[in-house]
Amino acid sequence: MRILTGIQPSGKLHIGNYFGAMKPAIELQEQGDAYIFIANYHAMTTVQDPASLRTMTTDVALDFLACGLDPEKTALYRQSDMPEVHELAWLLSTICPMGLLERCHSYKDKTAKGIAAMHGLFAYPVLMAADILAVQSNVVPVGKDQKQHVEVTRDLAIRFNNAFGEVFTVPEPFIRENVAVVPGIDGQKMSKSYDNTIEIFMEGKPLKKRVMKVVTDSKELEDPKDPETCNVFALCKLLSTEEEQAALAERYRAGGMGYGHAKTELLEKINEHFAPMREKRRVLVENMDYVEGVLKKGAEKASVLARETLQKARQAVGLE
Ligand code: TYM
Predict the structure, then answer these.
(1) Residue 192 annotated as catalytic
(2) What is residue 10's predicted lDDT score, i.e. its pLDDT?
(3) Which superfamily does CATH assign the domain made up of 2-182+288-317 to?
(4) Which of 208, 213, 216, 253 has a beta carbon 3.0–4.6 Å from 259's, enabling a disulfide?
(5) Annotation marks residue 219 as catalytic
(6) pLDDT (0 to 100) of residue 180
(7) Where does ATP bind (predicted)?
(8) What is the pTM of this model?
């Protein structure tokens, strides 16, 4: 089994990214050949400050390594260290109907939010397909918001294979239903662009402030509460065992527990879960040569596959 996922360096990573994609991808490294890359070409559709793009790119590498990515098992690389994806994206563009891209929610959502309607933003799913197909991955761990993009990838792979012969592996999205959409502090999907995130490496007062801001209904302390509709509960669930979830749900329903208590519990759980990762990150920051080495080695490994795929695709379409 070959596994691949990517994450954009367009802001500090949050617990939606962590539970939706990072954790599943890191866990899958035990079961197959794993590739995780930092989608800096994609981030250019929204980040146009060179210094920020550079810093945020290395930040994602630090975050993944701190969160348990094992570079002996997973190839971690920068998308821009594998430019073969662009040639592949062009080959895919020539068989990609406009309608397929016009239907993509992500493009419509971003332009509705005021992001300029550039060609790069529109063609974003084709580059994403090239990322996935270049390494011939079978499994793509993502959050629900990326499902449609993986479907576009499948569609393009099938069209290409039908037109030119079997070149691409048709991938499957891997979406864990319980973390498919992690809510942000306002209850919408947690997202960098909604400014409703809880960052993985936030600590101390800023973290506490963020957690205390999670939106709830206005039930009084003594009232029974519904855990299933509560954002605090939804976030606690991600960090709890089944028994802990059941016990907390019981306290919600019994009444006598205020949202302040639930938020304090959430804060403790976040601190407990991420404390070892914060420690590891502090050590890694002092070893940037090591981090650079990991990224280089990862790009070399992934590029072997990308070159092989590209060679096959070029031959299939008649460029060679
Ligand atoms: P990006 O950078 O927006 O998000 C990275 C991953 O985090 C998941 N995610 C969430 N999951 C659950 N709940 C949330 N609130 C939440 N917010 C984000 C996303 O679904 C994603 O899996 N287009 C991709 C990057 C990309 C890519 C690829 C991914 C480029 N090429 C190839 C997979 C394969 C993106 O913008 O993700």
Answers:
(1) yes
(2) 92
(3) HUPs (3.40.50.620)
(4) 216
(5) no
(6) 87
(7) 8-10, 16-17, 143-145, 182, 189-193
(8) 0.95
